[in-house]
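STRUCTURE:
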């Protein structure tokens, strides 16, 4: 697939002219997947909190290794790999739990873990939103996106050398879980560090450049079925709102701008987090969720309003 440069953003007059001709979309319609993702992320915590709060145990353990309703073991496959690298042979249930999680994300979407489950995602989304509101336009210090794969390799090497699951000592995901479920205030330090890094140092710095967990789930889901399609790319008015909100904007252009080059409308990069934010903000109806084999396209012109979206975290 050929990389394609985005077409320049429409000027303000052209966007306002388009808005006047087309009907408005509701706030809910412009934030549907954002709300669903927040519900999903809160739901994960709720499963663990029903025990301590109401005495009804649904999920027990941690976000990395749990048992739901005493029948469904779920284990983070990256943690299992670290255990193996550290030469600790896991219990059968941990192996089964890791297989269940790995198969799910490999089939559905690897980085759906990032946008639909991970408790750090709202933190980095908030930092990004605040950055925009405060007018921090510069990208800041930007490590190369592939740095996360080097960090992933390092995580496994350190486990092998030290014989410990060393990453779990500093993993902000684990610490965010501890803050919410166990009230571990010391763990807040790691979460705040990620927030401040994204706010003050690098735009989308942690999740899109450094996090080894996101890198791992991206690799795991490189053949996954659920994809976002730019199925209505013919209707794109180049307002660039999707690029502005996407945590991995480089994934969009090969599909959105690639019709003339014969590129598929499917966003095929495993870096796409299937967050659906592009679907939310695009008032031209360019994007939709589909499966990886659906290369169908719509060529009619839509009658919806071009978007100057106000972002919410
Ligand atoms: S990149 Fe890492 S911290 Fe960010 S959402 Fe994904 S797993 Fe969570
Ligand atoms: S392309 Fe769309 S669904 Fe994929 S990460 Fe970007 S905004 Fe989210």
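SEQUENCE:
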């Amino acid at each position: 697939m050929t990389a394609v440069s985005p077409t320049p953003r429409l000027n303000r007059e052209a966007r306002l002219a388009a808005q006047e001709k087309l009907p408005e979309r509701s706030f809910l319609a412009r934030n549907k997947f954002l709300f669903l993702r927040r519900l999903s992320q809160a739901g994960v915590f709720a499963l663990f909190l029903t025990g301590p709060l109401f005495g009804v145990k649904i999920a027990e353990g941690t976000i990395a290794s749990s048992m739901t309703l005493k029948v469904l073991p779920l284990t983070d496959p990256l943690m299992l790999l670290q255990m193996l690298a550290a030469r600790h042979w896991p219990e059968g249930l941990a192996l089964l739990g890791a297989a269940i999680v790995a198969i799910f994300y490999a089939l559905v979407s690897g980085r759906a873990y990032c946008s639909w489950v991970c408790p750090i995602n709202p933190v980095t989304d908030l930092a990004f939103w605040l950055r925009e509101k405060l007018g921090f336009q510069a990208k800041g210090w930007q490590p190369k996106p592939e740095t996360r794969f080097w960090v992933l390799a390092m995580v496994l090497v350190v486990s092998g050398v030290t014989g410990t699951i060393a990453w779990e000592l500093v993993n902000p995901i684990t610490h965010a879980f501890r803050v919410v479920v166990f009230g571990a205030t010391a763990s807040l330090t790691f979460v705040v560090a990620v927030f401040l890094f994204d706010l003050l140092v690098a735009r989308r710095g942690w999740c899109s450049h450094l996090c080894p967990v996101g890198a791992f789930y991206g690799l795991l889901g490189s053949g996954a079925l659920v994809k976002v399609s730019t199925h209505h790319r013919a209707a794109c008015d180049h307002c660039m709102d999707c690029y502005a909100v996407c945590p991995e904007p480089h994934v969009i252009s090969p599909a959105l701008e690639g019709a003339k080059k014969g590129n598929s409308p499917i966003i095929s990069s495993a870096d796409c987090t299937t967050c659906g934010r592009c679907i939310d903000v695009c008032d031209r109806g360019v994007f939709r969720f589909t499966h990886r084999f659906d290369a169908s396209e719509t060529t009619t012109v839509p009658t919806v309003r071009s978007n100057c979206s106000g972002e919410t975290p």
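REMARK: Residues 113-114, 118, 120-121, 124, 173, 207, 211, 213-214 surround iron/sulfur cluster (ligand 1) (CB under 6 Å).
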